From TrEMBL:
Residues 1-10 have a biased composition (Basic and acidic residues). It comes from the Bacteria. Residues 82-95 have a biased composition (Acidic residues). InterPro entries: DUF3297. Residues 1-22, 75-95 are annotated as: Disordered. It comes from Sphingomonas dokdonensis. This is Glutathione peroxidase.
């Protein structure tokens, strides 16, 4: 994995932008300079986030969302585990 988060990511498993390993690593979103923890989907290049609209749900039981536009910054909350662990395991096996 790289240290750059994806340009477009969604927490909805039915979305084409859903990526489980990236979500497990943890993504932080800063929208208009404020940390947001309620983001359902985001796009950095297009400059928008999608957040749940209270506890309202649609007829399929999914939360209703609203699209907010503005500057979006995404970052990983935890470093990649695979990069450091693989090299340490290989070095230990050679000894």
């Amino acid at each position: 994995m790289t240290d750059t988060p994806p340009d477009h990511l969604s927490i909805d498993p039915s979305s084409p932008y859903f990526d489980q390993p990236t979500l497990e690593r943890g993504i932080g979103i800063r929208f208009k300079g404020v940390e947001r923890n309620d983001v359902e989907e985001y796009s950095i290049s297009e400059g928008w986030i999608r957040v749940a609209l209270g506890k309202k749900v649609d007829r399929r039981g999914r939360p209703l969302t609203i699209k907010l536009t503005g500057p979006v910054e995404a970052y990983f909350q935890r470093p990649a585990d695979n990069e450091g662990d693989d090299s340490a395991d290989e070095a230990g096996g050679d000894e």
